[in-house]
UniProtKB/TrEMBL annotation, chain A:
InterPro entries assigned to the protein according to its UniProt record, in alphabetical order: AAA+_ATPase, ABC_AA/LPS_Transport, ABC_transporter-like_ATP-bd, P-loop_NTPase
Protein origin, superkingdom: Bacteria
Protein function: Involved in beta-(1-->2)glucan export. Transmembrane domains (TMD) form a pore in the inner membrane and the ATP-binding domain (NBD) is responsible for energy generation.
GO MF annotation list: ATP binding; ATP hydrolysis activity
Domain ABC transporter positions: 3-250
Keyword Transmembrane helix annotated: no
The UniProt record lists the keyword Transport: yes
Name of the protein in its database record: ABC transporter ATP-binding protein
Automatic annotation (TrEMBL), chain B:
UniProtKB keywords: Cell membrane, Membrane, Transmembrane, Transmembrane helix
Main location: membrane
Pfam families on file: BPD_transp_2 (PF02653)
Segments crossing the lipid bilayer: 12-33, 39-69, 81-101, 150-174, 202-224, 244-269, 281-300
Bilayer topology annotation: Multi-pass membrane protein
Compartment list: Cell membrane
Domain of life: Bacteria
Protein name: Branched-chain amino acid ABC transporter permease
Stored InterPro entries: ABC_transp_permease, LivM-like
TrEMBL record, chain C:
Origin species: Rhodopseudomonas palustris
Membrane topology: Multi-pass membrane protein
Keyword Disulfide bond: no
Residues spanning the membrane: 12-30, 59-78, 90-111, 131-153, 182-203, 209-228, 258-275
PANTHER family: AMINO ACID ABC TRANSPORTER PERMEASE PROTEIN, BRANCHED-CHAIN AMINO ACID TRANSPORT SYSTEM PERMEASE PROTEIN LIVH
GO cellular component: plasma membrane
GO BP of this protein: amino acid transport
Alphabetic keyword roster: Amino-acid transport, Cell membrane, Membrane, Transmembrane, Transmembrane helix, Transport
Main subcellular localisation: membrane
UniProt name for this protein: Branched-chain amino acid ABC transporter permease
Family: Belongs to the binding-protein-dependent transport system permease family. LivHM subfamily.
Location relative to the cell: Cell membrane
GO molecular function, one term: transmembrane transporter activity
């Protein structure tokens, strides 16, 4: 009952973006991935969700091999992700954007949706309710009818998180969700991530802010040039010489 | 009251009111009733473009071809086999979808652009097949004597029936747009990868949506055949397709009523246009003009914003947001 | 056997003009990511203008006319697209409108008659197969254009900018490459090439007002058969399409001869050659 990544390698032409990386994401745990720019963190996410094809390695979700599955089926199995550069339709409102996140859990077919059968009405109502709950949790309610291009970038990232949370995933992959957030918003986001984990969701988190990682993560994986440099608890990592050299440069000592 | 106006069904209510108000005015004139039926038929074709192009971003250059499939299907079963037009209706709804789905599935992986080319191919092949399929389609002569619908055997009844069908299609379309599927289609149009991350099987979804839109064209073809009682190789050609695409674009392809508005406008305009040869020039020219001026169409353009932007064209205009930021 | 060879040879010679039409398709697609379905209409316009004026003046006028027509498409594309915010589908719609406009213009001005000129009445005899010297001219023109294109794309700053804006429009425009102007120029170049193709078609097989979309399809099919990213492949694709057509008209009855090549192009489309380019690239 975990996401298990074994020896994943991803190549883009001659560049090896990820090299033999393994990691484990158990439900209810927060695992952080950290590393300098271009170290392959986002590519690792893309490989897990099926948006790039790994050259080698296997990925399992709850003992099901998923590395041959198309992305939408992986999402259907209970994965969810956000993008580092949020992808959104600028003309769509915040609540509509979050509503899009319910797609994997929708059950009404095309025909009952067209005819608005009671089943479809009930489901739509249920989604609206859950949508406003999620927006409440992330303090986005007051922006619900703004369009996405009217939001500052930090909030757009929060909407991304809301959209990923919407389908009640078992595992969620967040790519730098806290970038560009104000301190208060960061604190609120970290509370939400904690809540998610307490509900039993496995969270894989890419984050540059080590303070946040220390606060949230039980386990940290450090990538460098696509390979795993080391892993362990945040406290041990923080003291590690190699980590300090790579990540903070000599100034960090 | 405002809640009713904001509902997704409000535009449909508006249309019903307009049609109801128009009906007594034109009820006495066979000419206007006939044109009203044509407007309704073209509205259906244009709505099919609105669904495919306005919602899913699939530019179909073949709405008339799908219409022709529906029209010939019903013409053939009613004239050659003496079957009920209702059998024709079932075929007219089904066959276009059966052609459209595998076609879209085979071609739409991530970009709908190749599918546009494929619809062009379909139009060419179909026009060829209609001319050559003498035993079935009547070749160059076409099929005449298609029976009128027994449940709508006057022009007035056709007027009511065809607008009734437009309203039904609009209702289904509005519901679909405001559902998980409708939202996913819109996302996929804007950004297929985003939709994939939402868990959408983008090619399958777009293909289904395209198939549904083809069915709507087929429905229009069914009405067309039974209204005009004649179908020939020159009835629903690529020229009709461009006209229909133009209708949807002029009115606003992504809006609910835009295609209907465009259909009404262009059908009325056609009444006053000169010979058929020059019509392509007019339609093509107007299409280019509309794309240059208001690519989102009459109902899809925020005219207030557009005019405001035109009137303060100074590049360094002080915007309130900017001053707030620096203050 | 002898018959087969004859068909293949004739097809390949016919395919030269398709190869010429394939250049603008692949050029445009790899540079702007868009498709100009009016290409066939440009070619027919060139046919009509060169036919009615005649002589070298007619040829010049024909090419000017097509460049002007593609100018219109260039404007539409400028209006609709900018790096980072492209709407290719709408731009294609514009070219569809232009194609209809041109078709109807040609119909109203020049009528429905097929337009063809065959200046040669002596034929070459190659192993018993009679071939017009015109095909030699076609091949020579095509070769010259192919070479010129190669030089322009590989060796000039314009070609480099063109490839840069194809690979990454946003990045290129940030680096000061005038991406929109380059797109515009590509449309014009497409019009020019289609004009040349049209002139050759006038002297080879001829065309009438209704050939526009079929010509677009042949050019398009030629361009995708071996992948869109090089004019040379487009040329080879043209030869193949020409041969398929010649074989079909040799061995199949009437309408099938026209329909089967279209179906072949459909199959090629469904093999996803076009998507390969669209789906790669772009970090997420
Ligand atoms: N689609 C792609 N095509 C080619 N190369 C790519 C692609 N995506 C990523 N790369 C390369 O792979 C390497 C890893 O990139 P990746 O985006 O995974 O890094 P990252 O750790 O997420 O960096 P950042 O902190 O900047 O987000 C980089 O060298 C990048 O240039
Ligand atoms: Mg990254």
């Amino acid at each position: 009952m975990t996401v298990q990544v074994k020896d994943i390698t991803v190549r883009f032409g001659g560049v090896t973006a990820v090299k033999d990386v393994s990691l484990k994401l158990p439900p209810g745990k927060i695992v952080a991935v950290i590393g300098p720019n271009g170290s392959g963190k986002s590519t690792l996410f893309n490989a897990i969700t099926g948006m790039v094809k790994p050259a080698a390695g296997t990925i399992e979700v709850d003992d099901t091999r998923i590395d041959a599955m198309p992305p939408y089926r992986r999402i259907g199995l209970g994965l969810a992700r956000t993008f580092q550069t949020p992808r959104f339709d600028p003309k769509v409102t915040v609540s509509e954007a979050v509503m899009c996140g319910f797609y994997p859990v929708h059950r009404t077919g095309v025909f009952s949706a067209m005819l608005r059968l009671p089943k479809a009405v009930a489901e739509e109502g249920d989604f609206r309710e859950r949508c406003s709950d999620i927006l409440d949790d992330l303090r986005l309610s007051e922006f619900r009818s703004l369009t996405m291009n009217e939001l500052p970038m930090g909030r757009v990232r929060l909407v991304e998180v809301a959209r990923a949370v919407a389908n009640r995933p078992k595992y969620i992959l967040l790519d730098e969700p806290a970038a560009g957030l104000e301190r208060e918003e960061q604190r609120m986001l970290s509370r939400e991530i904690r809540k998610l984990a307490d509900r039993g969701v496995g969270v894989l988190l890419v984050e540059h802010n080590f303070g946040l990682i220390r606060e949230l993560a039980e386990h940290v994986v450090v990538l460098k040039d696509g390979a795993k440099l080391l892993e362990g608890e945040p406290e041990t990592i923080a003291k590690d010489r190699a980590f300090i050299d790579v990540y903070l440069g000599s100034a960090g000592r | 009251m405002p809640a009713v106006l904001r509902s997704r069904l409000a535009p449909i209510g508006l249309l019903v009111v307009i049609i109801a108000a128009m009906t007594p005015l034109i009820a006495g004139s066979a000419f206007w009733l006939d044109n009203s039926v044509l407007v309704a038929i073209f509205s259906l074709l244009a709505l099919s473009v609105g669904m495919a192009y306005g919602q899913a971003g699939i530019l179909s250059m073949a709405p008339a071809a799908f219409g022709a499939i529906g029209a010939f299907a019903t013409s053939i079963v009613t004239t050659r086999y003496g079957l009920s037009p209702l059998v024709g209706l079932a075929l007219a709804l089904l066959l276009p979808a059966v052609v459209a789905y595998p076609m879209a599935r085979a071609i739409t992986r991530l970009s709908p652009l190749p599918l546009s080319i494929a619809t062009l191919l379909l139009s060419l092949v179909l026009e060829l097949a209609i001319r050559e399929g003498k035993g079935l389609t009547g070749g160059y002569i076409g099929i005449s004597g298609i029976p009128p619908l027994w449940f709508a055997d006057s022009v007035f009844a056709m007027h009511v029936l065809s607008w009734g069908l437009v309203v039904v299609v609009l209702f289904l379309y509005a519901n679909l747009t405001d559902s998980a599927v409708g939202r996913a289609v819109k996302t996929a149009r804007h950004d297929p990868l985003r939709a994939t991350a939402d868990g959408v099987n983008v090619p399958a979804l777009l293909a289904s949506y395209f198939a549904i839109s083809a069915s709507v064209s087929g429905l229009a073809g069914w009405l067309y055949a039974h209204h005009l009682t004649y179908m020939g190789p020159d009835s629903l050609t690529m020229h009709v397709s461009i006209k229909v695409v133009l209708m949807a674009v002029i009115g606003g392809a992504s809006t609910l009523l835009g295609p209907v508005l465009g259909a009404a406008f262009l059908t009325l305009l056609t009444l006053y246009l000169p010979a058929a040869e020059t019509q392509g020039m007019i339609f093509g020219g107007v299409l280019i003009f509309v794309l240059l001026v208001a690519p989102n169409g009459v109902l899809g353009t925020d005219w207030g914003k557009l005019i405001a932007r035109r009137s303060d064209k100074q590049p360094m205009a002080v915007r309130p947001a900017a001053t707030e930021g620096t203050a | 056997m002898y018959e087969l060879v004859e068909y293949l040879l004739r097809g390949a010679l016919l395919g030269i003009t398709y190869g010429l039409l394939a250049f603008p398709v692949s050029l445009l697609f790899s540079t702007t990511g868009s498709v100009d379905v009016a290409l066939g209409a440009y070619a027919v316009l060139a046919v009509a203008v060169a036919y009615s004026i005649g002589g070298p003046v007619g040829i010049l006028a024909a090419i000017l006319a097509t460049v002007f027509a593609s100018f219109v498409v260039g404007i539409i594309s400028l209006r609709l697209n900018r790096p980072g915010a492209v709407d290719h589908v709408t731009a294609v719609l514009g070219t569809f409108g232009l194609a209809m406009f041109l078709e109807s213009l040609i119909l109203s001005v020049f009528g429905t008659n097929p337009m063809i000129r065959q200046p040669f009445d002596t034929f070459w005899n190659i192993g018993g197969i009679r071939i017009s010297p015109q095909t030699g001219i076609n091949a020579a023109v095509c070769l010259v254009i192919l070479t010129a294109l190669f030089v322009v794309l590989r060796k000039t700053p314009f070609g480099r900018s063109m490839r840069a804006s194809a690979a990454n429009p946003v990045g290129a425009s940030l680096n000061g490459i005038p991406v929109r102007q380059i797109w515009f120029a590509t449309y014009l170049l497409g019009g020019l090439l289609a004009g040349v193709a049209g002139v050759l078609i006038l002297y080879t097989t001829g065309a009438d007002y209704s050939s526009a979309f079929t010509l677009t399809i042949w050019g398009f099919g030629s361009a995708i058969i071996f992948g869109m990213n090089s004019p040379l492949r487009g040329f080879a694709g043209g030869l193949i399409i020409g041969m398929v057509q010649a074989l079909c008209s040799g061995y199949l009855p009437g309408a099938w001869a026209t329909a089967i090549p279209l179906v072949v192009i459909f199959v090629v489309l469904s093999m996803g050659r076009m998507n390969q380019i669209v789906s790669t690239g772009g970090r997420v």
